[in-house]
Every structure is written in C-alpha cells, then in structure tokens.
C-alpha cells in the first residue's frame, strides 16, 4: 500500500532515521521532528518500502508538507 507521510505541524527536521529503500513495518520511526523544543517521532502507518525521502536534516517543514513516500 503506497502512502504519503505528511507533516502534522510546522517543525524542523532534527534527524532522518530511515534510508530510501528500507523495508518498514507499521510504527517504525522514519524521522524525528523538533517543534517548540519537543522531539516528535514520525512513524509509518503502513508497512512497505521507503520509496522517497523529500526532506533532509535541518529542513523546516510546514503543516501538510509531504515528508516521505512509503509504497
């Protein structure tokens, strides 16, 4: 099942944990965002392969931005 991982808030990309091509299970951490001095893990909702990362560490993302594609 293909799906987009979308930012739920304005945040900084603190750390990218997964790499493109990685096999992910439901609940795996893809990256960690930072907002208001809080670290927010971004988790997969469905198993699949990480097809594309659309952000890098240090990027600022807006609510609704596509962070990654899992398929």
Task: Give me the Rg, rounded.
Answer: 11 Å
Summarize the helix and strand pattern as letters. Answer: EEEEEEEE
The coarse overall form would be globular
Distance between the termini: 5 Å
The level of helicity is under 10%
The CATH homologous superfamily is called: RNA polymerase II/Efflux pump adaptor protein, barrel-sandwich hybrid domain
CATH architect. name? Beta Barrel
CATH class: Mainly Beta
Unreliable runs? none
Tell me the structural class.
mainly beta
- Please give the largest β-sheet: 4 strands, antiparallel
**How many beta-strand segments?**
8
**Would you give the CATH topology?**
OB fold (Dihydrolipoamide Acetyltransferase, E2P)
Structural domain count: 1
Care to give the gist of this entry?
This protein is an all-beta fold and 71 residues long. The protein has strands spanning 3-6, 11-16, 23-24, 29-35, 38-43, 48-53, 60-61, 66-70.
């Amino acid at each position: 099942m293909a799906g987009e991982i979308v930012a739920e808030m304005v945040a900084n990309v603190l750390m990218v944990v997964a790499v493109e091509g990685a096999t992910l299970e439901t609940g795996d951490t893809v990256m960690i965002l930072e907002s208001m001095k809080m670290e927010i893990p971004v988790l997969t909702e469905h198993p699949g392969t990480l097809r594309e990362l659309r952000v890098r560490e240090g990027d600022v993302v807006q609510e609704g931005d596509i962070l990654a594609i899992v398929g």
